[in-house]
Design a protein that fits this description.
Helix content is 81%, strand content 0%. It is mostly helical. Helix 1 (4-27) runs antiparallel to helix 3 (54-74), helix 1 (4-27) packs across helix 4 (79-100) and helix 4 (79-100) packs antiparallel against helix 5 (108-143). The two termini are 22 Å apart.
Length: 144
């Protein structure tokens, strides 16, 4: 059975990943103006630009902490639940954060997509809970 802790962990992962995506996009603004003569020095200059830029570095570190929580959660949660829940909620968090930052998000079709995504996540969670409960009932009947 999926626990509240596992669901909260997946929600935390989604928030850390989804809310940082638009911030990472904003943090990279200006990188196109970094120019160097050789390919290696270009890569090093871009890395320097990114990692000395707090507008990029803070969301990047938060995003990576979401990955750490995700890998820990994968060790305790059913993959058929964890992957779709984390990825679809990440999408929702990205859209909502982008909208809060003033980005366009697609109008009525995006809203319909968000509702369908939430319906799908709900079905995944209900299915996971029902499958685990059915397995426990079968074990109990086999013992008697």
């Amino acid at each position: 059975m999926v626990t509240i802790g596992e669901l909260l962990s997946l929600l935390l992962v989604s928030v850390l990943w989804g809310c940082t995506n638009p911030l990472l996009k904003r943090g990279t603004e200006g990188i196109e103006h970094v120019t160097e003569t050789s390919r290696v020095s270009q890569i090093l200059a871009e890395l320097k630009f990114l990692f000395l830029n707090l507008k990029y570095l803070v969301p990047f570190l938060l995003n990576q902490s979401g990955s750490l929580v995700y890998y820990y959660t994968l060790s305790t949660t059913d993959l058929s639940l964890a992957v779709p829940v984390a990825n679809s909620l990440t999408f929702l968090c990205t859209v909502l954060t982008g909208k809060a930052l003033g980005e366009e998000f697609g109008g009525k079709q995006a809203v319909a997509g968000m509702f369908l995504t939430m319906a799908g996540i709900t079905l995944c969670v209900i299915s996971s809970v029902d499958d685990k409960d059915a397995g426990k009932q079968d074990m109990t009947q086999a013992v008697h």
